[in-house]
Amino acid sequence: MKSMIGTSLPRLDAVAKVTGAACYPADLVQPGMLHLQIVFARRPHARILSIDTREALRQPRVVAILTAEDVPSNAFGLIEEDQPVLCRDVVRFEGDKVALVVAETKAAALAGAQHVHVEYEDLPIISCPRAALVAPAPLVHEERGSNLLFHMPLRRGDCTQGFGEAEVILEENFTTSWQEHAYLQPEAGIAYLDEEGRVVIETAGQWLHEDRRQIARILQVSEEQIILRYATIGGAFGGREDLSIQPLLALATWKLQRSTALVWSREESILGHHKRHTISIHCRWGARKDGRITAVEAESLADGGAYASTSPEVLKVATLFATGCYEVPNVSVDGYVVYTNNIPAGAFRGFGAPQAQFASEVMVTRLAHALEIDPIEMRRRNIYREGSIEPTQHPLPPGVSALPVLERCAAEAYESFDYGKPRPGKEPHLRRGLGIACGMKNLGYSFGYPEQSTATVELLREAGKVRAIVRTGAADVGQGAHLILRQIAAEVLTLPLEHITLLADNSYETPNAGSASASRLTLMAGRAVRDAALAALHKLRATVADAVQATAQYRPPATTSLHPKTGSGVPNYCYGYAAQAIEVEVNILTGQVKVLRVVSVHDVGRALNPQQVEGQIEGGLAQALGYALLEHFQVRNGRVLTPNLSTYLLPTVLDMPVEITPIVLEYADVNGPFGSRGVAELPLVPFLPALVSAIHDAVGVWITQQPVTPEVMLRALRSNAGASISGKHPKR
Asked: Which of 554, 587, 613 is the last residue of a domain?
C-alpha cells in the first residue's frame, strides 16, 4: 500500500464546502426553536443603574428576558474569570452583554431587545494603555486596584556592559494595531436537551472540552451534564478560543428547558469577540563592527482591553521574542499588558510573535545598514543555532533550523529576485524593492501550562477486513487537521484511508485533544493518535478477538513558569522557523504599496500532506498581507469605528501577489509523529518586517507602524523629502 505520509490526499470536506452542502452552525437552526437576541451595552464604561424589561416582555412572541440574576456563576475566562456572562453592575466595553431576549422568532427577539430599557451612569473612559498605568487613572476593574494585568521581565547578562561593547547603537519605537479575525462564518449555534436531560450546544469553537468546562462552571452543574458538539467550522485563527455565544445558548436552554438558536450578524461578531493585541514597543539595539549583536533593551506595552482573555500568555510570547531569532548575550526586556475600556484582545494567529518580530527584524536590518553589512549576512552571524541560549537563560529545544531556513530563502532571493541589484519600476513614480526577514514561533502550550493530548483507537475485524475508529476531540477549524489525523492512523495501521473513521466533534464521545491553537494539533493530537494506533495494533496482533481498543495520552517535554524577576526558565518544548523574501512596488505619488512576489520558506519537520502545508502557507500570507497593508481596525475613546466589512478592508485576490512561492523544508522533529510539527502561524511572523525592509529598499524610508496604509506611506515620504528616495541597495 502506498504510504499515507508525504502524500497530497484531497480534503474530504472540500466538495461539501464549495457546493454548500457542508452544515455550519447557522444551518442547524430548526423551526420551533426559540431565538435569542443580545442587548449589548453599546458604551465603553458605565454603571448599570437599572434594567427595565417590562415593556420588552409585552412585545408579541417574546418568551423571556434573562439578566445577570439568572446566571448561577456569572464569570468566565480562559485564564482569569473576570468577564461576566451578563453584566450586573458595570459595563466595561461596547460589546458587553447586558440582557438576553428570548422569543419565538428572530424578528420578535430583535423587537424585544429594542424595548429593554437600561439606565446607565457613564463612567470615565480609559482608552490609552500608557495612561492606564498612571495614577489616578480610572480603573477598569476597581477590585484589582490597578489597571496592570500582567508584567513579564526578561534579564540575561549585563546590558550596561553589552552597550559599552557596541560600536553602533540604534533606538526606535514601533506600534501595531488591532486586527479582526474576519473568519467566514460569524458566531452561531443551537442548544437543546437530549433524552437524558443534558444540555447540548452545537456551535463552532477551538476546544470542545474547555468550552464544556467553562459552561458547566457557569451553570454550576457537572461537566457530564454539558455536551459540546462542533458543526463545520468556518475559520477561527484564535478568535474562537474565548467563549462568546455558547454560555448564552446553554443558559437559555437550561433555564427554559427548550431548544434555542443564536446567529450573530457580522457587526455583532466584530463587536462581540476579541482582537489581536495592539502593542507599542520601544527598543534599543547595540552591535559590534563585526556584526555581532551585543545587547537589546526593550519595553512592550500591550492593550488587553476590558477583560483578560489570553493576554498574559500573549504578552509572554511577545516579550520572549523581543530579540527575535537571534542569540543576544545581554538582554533587558519588560512586557506589560493593561486593562482599558477598549475591545478585549486575545488569541490571534501568531499570538504576539508578529508584533514582537516586526520590531526585532527591522532593527537587525537597520543595524546591518548602519554597519554596511549585508542584512542576510548580519542574520547569519547572530541567528539561533542548535544549543543556543534563549533570553530565559536556557538552551533552545532541539531541532533549531533557523539558519538552514534563512539560507534557503537567501538562495531563492539571489537566484530569482536578483538580490542586491537595482529593480527599476515600470514608471518613474513606481519604485521597487526587496526585503528579507526571519521568524520563529513556539508550537504548543508554553510556560508551564499543562500540555497533553489524548486519543483512543478501536480496531474491528469484520469479514476478514480491519477498520479503525479514532476518537480525539480535535477541532478542524479549516486547516485540515481531521484529514491529517486519519492519514497518521492509516499509515500506522497500514489501512486504506476509507477504513479509518474519525470521531472528533463531540465532547461526550471523544477524549480531550486540547485546543486547535498554537499550531499544535499535528504534533500533539497526531502523536496521540499515532501512539494509540500502535498500541491498538499490538493488541490486535496478540489476540483472536474481533475488537480491541487502546488509549494513549501524549505529554511532550515539560516547560516551566518563568522566574518573576529574571524570566529564567524553560518556556517552550518546540519552535517552528520561517524566512520570507518580499518584492514590493511603491507608488510615490499615491503611497500605495503593492506586493509583487513572495517567497515563504518553512521547516515543518515532515510534510504529512504537502498540499495542505502549502495551502496553510498561502492562506497565512493572505492574512499577513492584510495585517501589513490593509486591515486598520480603529477604536477611539473605547468606541469601535470599523464595525463592519465595508469600513474594515480585507485583502481580495486582486491584492495578492501574482507570484507566491511556498518552500517546505523537512528537518524531522524528535517529538512529532513521523517527524512533523505545525506550520499554521509561521507565515504571519516575518511578513511585516520583510515588507517594511522592501519598502526601505525601494524608497529609502523606514516605516515603524502597522498597517502601512497609503496615508502612512505618504507621511513617511514627505517627512523624508529632503533625502534621496532612490533606496540604497545592500552589498552582495
From this structure: 554
